[in-house]
Predict the structure.
Amino acid sequence: MDFFQRVELPNVQFEVEHQDEVLLLGSCFSDNIGLLMNQLKFNVLYNVFGVMYNPYSIFKLMERALNDEMFQSEELIENDGVFYHFDVHGDLSSEDCLKLIDDLDFQLKKLKNKLFDAKLLVITFGSSWVYNYEKWNKIVANCHKISGSEFNKEILSVESMIVQGQKTITALKEKNKKVELLFTVSPVRHVRDGLSNNHISKGRLIEVATQLAEWSNGVYFPAYELMVDHLRDYRFFKQDKAHPTEEAISYIWEKFSETFISKSSRELAKEIEKLQRAVAHRPLRPQSEAHRQFVQRTLQLIDEMESIHNLDFSYERSRLLMPKA
């Protein structure tokens, strides 16, 4: 007897190897998968401007990078002595506006280079609900804790999201003809909008993601469906009943990697995980001969993996050689 509703995964005509350039943008799913890929030594860049939820803001930031449109000081807003930009996450902020502009331009160049070179671009939509800053009539990616009275809450139409997406994707493919596009919807529930509004929002995003995938010859990956229709149970959600647990993220990553990652890279990822577990091992007797030999064997393994696979294990090497108490 099968107690789970099966979710059909896409058949794809490409595979990702460790050396391939991968870019992930958007909501928390892009952060989760990007972090895992980074830990497993994939050539990945993710959310350089922080988590972004609505498709409009994601696409407009991509356009900005593609057009090499540097940030300007008049675009910044100040709140309690700190400068922010409405198009990026609050982690990118500063009490010095010129420093913030430099930081934003630096990240923009990183994003531009990756957009031009990426083999795979993963775009995750989080919410159709947006906030419009009344003073500038501007849809923002982040309100930066400015009073809600200064914003109008709106929901983006399916048509407007598709039109903006097609415009941005067309510009991207003029610069990077080889890029494979993967669209998905974040499995995180936006419960602050209310459950009904969350369902309305997610339904629109699924329609936008599937239509853009079809229009662009891309792929739709059902991360949301795996969480909500396959796992379903609240034991796979954190205490807030909105975010997936580590176990749920690992399960979705497993399905993601089976779909898009080559068999050789999946096997290499397992070797890397095994090595990282060895490095993280806390010895009972760090001064013993047995531990010294363990360290030497592990260092030799690191040297071999760096040589064979052209990967960087400097963090693991430094951690292994760190004096133990």
User: Anything to note?
Assistant: The mean pLDDT is 93. The chain has two domains: 22-261, 263-325. The chain is about 50% helix and 15% strand. The radius of gyration is 22 Å.
